[in-house]
Specification:
492 residues, alpha/beta, 6-stranded mixed β-sheet, 5-stranded parallel β-sheet, elongated
Length: 492
């Protein structure tokens, strides 16, 4: 990546001062919200509201023009009508502003000829005045480590997950729903129409960002296909990249082209082939994207597909086996060593237990899900473990509470010992307000929260866990094969 562009983006992500042009006291205005985010998230630099009709905005002195601001400005958030942007870019030149976020929309995404002409003029002025643009028609930057956000109530503490999203709504959903699964974020970029800086630039930036270890991407279309594939391949060679394509179907493609981000689209088959060839991991839905990022964030590099499955009743154990095999995983039988150990613990049951290990036959015996998990976890015959927490059992509140708390305690203990990569399955349910008051659903939610807080990847179904783990293994197998090829070529 161009070192100069890295330096510019570093300046935008670590600004000494931010000017919000179009800042407002009106809570219905986005100029109000972007300024509010800076104060709520604790941005430590100088904040400059720009609004010619106000003397102060949200307690800050307001400036009539960008050129009136006395100090240096590293980053501009633009919330003014599109026709005013060319003049703003001329002012940016006088204040040495090099990066501007254009929240402003209603440009080429409308499909109107006049909007196309105005967007072309905006790009021309940006080039003349040496200003790089994020957007237009986007939410901009979320960088919790610097107190920069594009939404309310997002995690304040930073983490290692980076993201680039062509859709502002998708970026917000990714952060919110990912946070419920324990994800925390380094830098997430919503870049909209990609008039200037695009998906390739942000991939290049995140690939070299030392605070980012996993990259998530939502892309509706690319404007320079070969350059994008080079950037994707480079990023995926250094860290996992999970990519979701929007607009794969006819209706979605039409939406992307004409009423959302004005992107060029391509077929689903071509996209997935290209992503895989570049070494990245294609996702099918936003839910799938989050599932995969959870796996790459919390699980170590794994190249084996032999899984041990514990917990759940008889039906769930059978379905778990089916779902794991359908995802391409292998379920080896319990080895003789494990059988001997189980025989010593539960002489009446040991020959009934297998892989998957049915929890229902353990009731009343001196063995439970946690004990068999502790037997299976150290075994070299398994590459990782999927553990079903008991979601339904014929017990009242006291018995069910004791059972679930014990299972969660055991899962956390095994996880912390790091004897084997572990994923836990605990369904979310389709809950309304009334159900949230019920002790059973509250108990499940509390145990899920405990598991997530411990850093364990938790999935709503075995299907979702198995699919994510299988693709994680495929990624690291490809990485290992490429490494062997590189070493062979170096030796030759």
């Amino acid at each position: 990546m161009d070192a100069g562009l890295v330096q510019l983006l570093e300046r935008a992500f670590h600004p000494r001062a931010i000017a919000v042009v179009g800042a407002s006291n009106n809570p219905m205005s986005f100029g109000y919200h972007f300024l509010r985010h800076l104060t709520r998230y604790g941005f430590a630099g100088n904040i400059y509201p720009v609004n010619p009709g106000e003397e102060s905005v949200q307690g800050f002195p307001a400036y009539h023009r960008l050129s009136d601001i006395p100090g240096p400005i590293d980053y501009v958030v633009c919330c003014i009508p599109a026709q005013l942007i060319p003049d703003l870019l001329r002012e940016c030149r006088t204040r040495d502003v090099r990066v501007a976020h254009l929240f402003t929309g209603r440009l080429t995404e409308t499909g109107r000829a006049q909007a196309h002409e105005l967007e072309a003029e905006i790009l021309c002025q940006a080039r003349i005045h040496d200003v790089r643009l994020i957007g237009p028609n986007c939410m901009g930057l979320y960088h919790p480590g610097q107190g920069i956000s594009f939404g309310y109530d997002l995690p304040i503490e930073p983490g290692p997950v980076g993201g680039l999203f062509q859709s502002g709504g998708a970026s917000g959903e990714f952060v919110r729903y990912g946070a419920l699964r324990g994800l925390r974020f380094s830098k997430v970029i919503s870049y909209g129409n990609a008039l200037d800086l695009d998906e390739s630039d942000f991939l290049d930036y995140l690939s070299q960002d030392t605070n980012t270890t996993v990259i998530a991407a939502y892309i509706e279309g690319v404007k320079e296909g070969r350059r994008f594939l080079r950037s994707l391949k480079n990023a995926a060679s250094t860290k996992p990249v999970v990519a979701l394509k929007g607009g794969k179907g006819g209706a979605g493609a039409a939406r992307a082209c004409f009423s959302h981000t004005a992107s060029l689209t391509g077929s689903s088959e071509v996209w997935e082939t290209a992503v895989r060839q570049a070494g990245a991991v294609p996702a099918e839905t936003l839910e799938d994207l989050i599932d995969l990022v959870v796996a790459f964030r919390f699980l170590p590099p794994t190249t084996g597909k032999r899984v041990g499955v514990v917990g759940g009743g008889g039906g769930k154990s059978v379905l778990s086996a089916d779902e794991c095999e359908s995802a391409g995983l292998e379920l080896p039988p319990l080895p003789q060593k494990a059988r001997e150990e189980l025989k010593a613990i539960a002489p009446d049951l040991w020959d009934w237990l297998g892989n998957p290990a049915d929890r229902s036959i353990m009731q009343g015996a001196p063995i439970d899900t946690g004990k068999i998990l502790k037997v299976m976890a150290p075994l070299p015959e398994f590459d990782f473990i999927i553990a079903n927490i008991t979601e339904d059992a014929p017990f009242g509140q006291e018995g069910m509470t004791r059972l679930l708390q014990t299972e969660a305690d055991d899962f956390i203990e095994v996880w912390r010992k790091r004897t084997k990569p572990l994923a836990v399955v605990l369904g979310a349910g389709e809950l309304g307000g009334q159900e949230l008051q019920d002790w059973r659903w509250r108990l499940l939610a509390e145990q899920r929260q405990r598991l997530v807080a411990a850093g364990i990847p938790v999935y709503a179904s075995v299907t979702r866990a198995a699919r994510s783990l299988s693709r994680l293994v495929d990624y690291y197998r490809r990485r290992a094969a490429l490494s062997r090829t590189d070493r062979a070529l170096a030796g030759w």
